[in-house]
Design brief:
globular, mainly alpha, 189 residues, single chain
């Protein structure tokens, strides 16, 4: 019983942290100095790609990924920047998905059974059977922040395999555009 209560508290705290970080980014995100970040990455030499992927993986849990994608294009150019952002984005989404699945799925299932069973149960069953296409569409369309979607998928019944495939395929369009933009900027200056 104590573990279930702790799981519920951890999930709520995590949700609050994600929401607060999105709000703070909206308020203070314009002050991000890409040149300073680029110089810091260069100082890591051959370790820069691994350090970038680690920073991207954990940084995008609380900060939107768009600046990280642009920085990848600026620092690593298009091809490598795209590879690193897809790897980091996938790892980040898996971390959030696994955390939400472990800490929040049981609580949300109970809530849904009691209050919103009809429509949401049907959609959840559809995700369980083959949510790859639904997840790709949700990833491509800017309907909700990346981590809110990761949390929702974590508490849903989507299979991990379908989640990973849908996430990778859904990440590609936005990553291509944003990383290309970052690499294009370096050619202008």
């Amino acid at each position: 019983m104590k573990w279930q209560k702790l799981q519920k508290i951890m999930f709520i705290v995590f949700l609050i942290l994600v929401i607060v970080s999105i709000i703070l980014y909206k308020i203070f995100g314009e002050n991000l100095d890409i040149t300073q970040v680029n110089n810091q990455l260069k100082s890591f030499g051959i370790w820069a790609p691994i350090i970038f992927i680690v920073i991207y993986t954990f940084g995008t849990i609380f900060i939107p990924s768009t600046p990280f994608m642009a920085i990848a294009g600026i620092f690593f150019d298009f091809t490598y920047g795209l590879i690193y952002t897809i790897i980091g984005g996938l790892l980040s989404s898996i971390v959030v998905f696994a955390f939400a699945r472990k800490t929040g799925q049981d609580s949300v299932e109970k809530l849904l059974k009691n209050k919103y069973a009809g429509y949401l149960t049907k959609y959840d069953a559809r995700l369980k059977e083959g949510g790859i296409f639904s997840l790709i569409i949700l990833r491509i369309m800017p309907i909700m922040p990346f981590n809110v979607l990761n949390i929702l998928m974590g508490i849903s019944k989507i299979e991990i395999r379908n989640y990973v495939i849908g996430t990778v395929l859904g990440l590609i369009p936005s990553n291509v555009v944003t990383v290309y933009f970052g690499s294009f900027i370096t050619k202008l200056f």
